[in-house]
Design goal:
The protein has 319 residues and is of the alpha+beta class. The chain has 2 domains: 13-184, no CATH class; 195-311, Distorted Sandwich (Glucose Permease (Domain IIA)), CATH 2.70.70.10. The protein is built from 4 helices and 14 strands. It has helices spanning 35-110, 118-121, 133-139, 143-184; strands at 15-20, 29-34, 195-198, 201-205, 212-215, 218-221, 227-229, 234-242, 246-254, 257-267, 274-275, 280-284, 294-301, 304-306. α1 (35-110) runs parallel beside α4 (143-184) and α3 packs across α4 (143-184). The longest helix has 76 residues, at 35-110. 18% of the residues are buried.
Length: 319
Amino acid sequence: MRGVIKPVRKRAERSWTVLLVPHGSGASRSVELPHTVVKWLIGIGSVVLLVIAVLGAAAVTRGISITRNRALERENRVLADEVRRMRQRLVGLRDTIDRIGQREQDLRLLAGLDPIDSGVQQGGIGGPTGAWSERDSLAALGANGEQALAARMDVDALIRRADILVRSVNESYDSLSKHQARFAATPSIMPTKGWLTSAFARERVHPILHLARPHEGIDVSAPMGAEIEAAAAGVVTDVKWEEGYGNLLTVDHGNGMVTRYAHCSKILVARGQRVKRGQKIALVGSTGLSTGPHLHYEVWINRKPVDPLKYVLPDAIVD
């Protein structure tokens, strides 16, 4: 048999037809584009769009970065100016603390305390010692960092010195409070207004008994019913009638110090009551062994009578 070779027909390549329609009155045209060309055009267009997108994003990012950098520069300038102003204010604060330190030394003297050594008082001067994590970080920021570091050191120094002053002032206050409490409990005023008619004596002739015996206080002649005031702050420990003394009032001032008020016509306070210097506690009378209205006033220290006039201060201030 004879073989027959048939020609093979190539498969037609797909194509795209683009119709171009003018806006005017011209005729429309069609353009046929092979599928391969269309794929190439799409690929090139995609690459172009991608490049445009990347360049646009980079431009936007750069613009944002420039804007942010400018804002940071403005903030840095503002912060730098504020740090400089703060350091100037710290100079004034240091001067104020210096003046307070001088007053604090005077206060310690008034409180009966030894002055603080100048080296200890200036303990806040100088920079911090030991490890400090922010030191290197601030120092690495250039001039602004150095300003911030110096301000930090100034503030820390003033805080340490202020702490020293606070502790010293508290110590002085406590000492003064103790002195004040002791002074308030120390007899310092004449309990009533009148004339001294009999002084403290180890021995004298009693005006009624005509016997030589100790006179353990002073007699102050005053009108009947004149006010008797507490010579110091204390607690009323005894209100009673005692032979010879008549109506007797006893006040304990602490620290072994006691005052007694005798011959009262009336006692105005009760046992256990706390009184203060200058408070009205009784009225002058003539009870007990008495030749007339007067106050017999005694001061006892550690259970021994002492001359009350030693505990009457001129121009004493009543609490």
